[in-house]
Amino acid sequence: xxxxxxxxxxxxxxxxxxxxxxxxxxxxxxxxxxxxxxxxxxxxxxxxxxxxxxxxxxxxxxxxxxxxxxxxxxxxxxxxxxxxxxxxxxxxxxxxxxxxxxxxxxxxxxxxxxxxxxxxxxxxxxxxxxxxxxxxxxxxxxxxxxxxxxxxxxxxxxxxxxxxxxxxxxxxxxxxxxxxxxxxxxxxxxxxxxxxxxxxxxxxxxxxxxxxxxxxxxxxxxxxxxxxxxxxxxxxxxxxxxxxxxxxxxxxxxxxxxxxxxxxxxxxxxxxxxxxxxxxxxxxxxxxxxxxxxxxxxxxxxxxxxxxxxxxxxxxxxxxxxxxxxxxxxxxxxxxxxxxxxxxxxxxxxxxxxxxxxxxxxxxxxxxxxxxxxxxxxxxxxxxxxxxxxxxxxxxxxxxxxxxxxxxxxxxxxxxxxxxxxxxxxxxxxxxxxxxxxxxxxxxxxxxxxxxxxxxxxxxxxxxxxxxxxxxxxxxxxxxxxxxxxxxxxxxxxxxxxxxxxxxxxxxxxxxxxxxxxxxxxxxxxxxxxxxxxxxxxxxxxxxxxxxxxxxxxxxxxxxxxxxxxxxxxxxxxxxxxxxxxxxxxxxxxxxxxxxxxxxxxxxxxxxxxxxxxxxxxxxxxxxxxxxxxxxxxxxxxxxxxxxxxxxxxxxxxxxxxxxxxxxxxxxxxxxxxxxxxxxxxxxxxxxxxxxxxxxxxxxxxxxxxxxxxxxxxxx
Length: 716
Prior knowledge:
- It is a single chain.
- Among the domains are: 179-219 and 245-458, Dbl Homology Domain, Chain A; 473-497 and 509-593, Roll (PH-domain like); 613-694, SH3 Domains (SH3 type barrels, Roll).
- The chain has an 8-stranded mixed β-sheet with strand order 3-7-6-5-4-10-9-8.
- The protein has 26 helices and 15 strands.
């Protein structure tokens, strides 16, 4: 028989080693390729074929490995390079653990004979099979099924789809439950960017409106919904609406995992807060992509602009996109590691320290960006026409081009609030609180640098323009200085003569003067007849100013106050009786001239348990230097209020002060909400002061450890 087979097939006799000294690891060979071709072709498998010989080698090698090392089992032959090429997230995962190893072959299992064929990957009975072959065929089918389930890559027609996102590497682990496998597969297949279909502008407006609706319902005011719901449940209920980002608890992986049955409500709220940071970053990146593809790279727009105008409009937006992409990759990887999010503030801190500096340069150039955009719209008719076409396309969802340009500054400020929200919910004196404090402080530093950069640019330009209009009568005062900026300017009426009812009724005794108030200087001027120049009459250091309100001396003096210069430019004391157009104007001038004057209500630093608070329901941009720009859902502590529609307040989350109209805010009526807002504000302040005190106490010693985080990407 051996000779017959040699004559028929032309092969040398097969030599089988009965004794193997060392374990043999099967490596891919040409025989294996031929085996795969034979399996896919459906041809009968002969006993002396290369498939038969290769399978026998596998059986012998596995048997010898069992004899040499009974406790170990051979690992599946998976090429690490191909493993990393399969999916983006697979490259970041560790190699298969020992639990993923292939079980050894049974030595007593028969191999397939001519009675079994493989058609299209499914084994079927051949018409030449005999009943005596069925036990052996069943054993081989069992072996094939166990081998396939132990280490198989289900590519589902890779060559046909050619989509790497649809390729997943599935390794069935011995002892893992199907529920655990489903959770891990769901975590691995999370694609936050593709699942988010809300642009960042929509998310931002909706989330702020939801905060307002939540407060209104707790205040007992009419809202879009009905009924009364507890605060945490209401917050999630409002977020689970149209134009909102998905909730953590609505993910399939979370539902399968059973975490919703074991976690406490406050822990679920914390998970939602961290998950909102991730999904909002994905929404922000989606809007940046639209800015790049629809505007920055669009030939319709690019061909209408010069290279310098392109730079003025888009600045370093590509660096912003790169920073957001890195940040989002690390956030997604954290969720892929475990659907129960451990922390995100360590990632925020790492990127804020190493990559978020690009926000500062972009925001500082934003003033020039707006000016040049208005200039281009006026001068370039073709650009104006193409921009109108692009803004009206459906993918933009009715949003303006400028709403995309201001995205970076809106995001960095919103990111600070999201971290602040996490800080309110983490356990006190925990590691999560420490990382949240560090991330919040770093983001606050970036926001302050952005604001200071913008202010510095505008202040310098304003000082230059003011100095050009001034004419000094006697002693000249240098106006331009790096440490000086304008606080308030405007016209008031100066009253001369004795204080009597007759002089009050005589309008001849009122003379208009124009005040320029800087942070460290006051200039009293008189406008020229042309209205373009201002003649300086007097000046005084701001620290030498005093004011006196005459409201309690009768209705005629309701809008009048006295301004005292303890030491003017001639080194003598002078008093001016000034009248404003309204009571609010008078109070605004008084608080600007003498900032240390006591307000009607105490500041948040006084820790009053029931201080008056308002919430912004409509965004407002400041029109004068002493006004405060407010955004929807901002909570402010009231310091002063006038009868003609103005408030002087302090924003809780950053301590900024200024005037704003009453029409853009609503009073917070619920005492519990006010107390909670104040408590959360004080906790953040105390946590930051404690961290700063610890750093100050450790000066000269070894610095405290910052969160150690290694990114999941590398720069090429």
